[in-house]
Specification:
single chain, five-stranded antiparallel sheet, 145 residues, alpha+beta, 7 strands, Thiol Ester Dehydrase, Chain A
Length: 145
């Protein structure tokens, strides 16, 4: 397992609106939670998305690939934590890992590939190099590039 120098942990409560009629989290809602965890990770590193996007001239860091492995359900009322970190840096992309746990232990693992992106004059998504300043805040010198 990768042991990155910079991690972030968020705590959430599973709400009724997160769940299906059986009272367990409806799987697409995990991806909404993981997106929020990625934003929280960047904010904790000093790059609040609302200001960082403008500062770096990007539209964001959209997901271009994602997956999740579910080992146990999360239910209405559960308190959960999501531990997030950058597992790999590329030139303009990066891989985020999320480990979601409830009182019984780890219940979901997720990975995302995201790209540092802008939109060109024709309206097409275009990848930009991730700034060195951003990489440094995450301790990227120890990760594959």
């Amino acid at each position: 397992m990768i042991n990155p120098p910079f991690k972030n942990l968020i705590r959430l409560q599973i709400e009724w609106g997160d769940c299906d009629p059986a009272g367990i989290v409806f799987y697409p809602n995990y991806f909404r939670m993981f997106n929020a965890a990625t934003d929280a990770l960047f904010a904790a590193a000093g790059f609040e998305p609302a200001t960082a996007f403008t500062r770096f001239g990007i539209i964001g860091y959209p997901m271009i690939d994602t997956s999740a492995a579910f080992s146990s359900p999360n239910r209405f009322g559960d308190s959960i934590t999501i531990l997030s970190f950058i597992a790999r840096w590329g030139r303009s992309s990066f891989d985020v890992r999320h480990q979601l746990s409830n009182a019984a232990g780890e219940s979901v693992q997720s990975s995302e590939k995201r790209v540092w992106a802008t939109v060109d004059e024709a309206g097409r998504l275009q990848a930009l190099p991730v700034p060195d300043e951003v990489r440094a805040a995450f301790g990227a010198d120890h990760l594959n590039t």
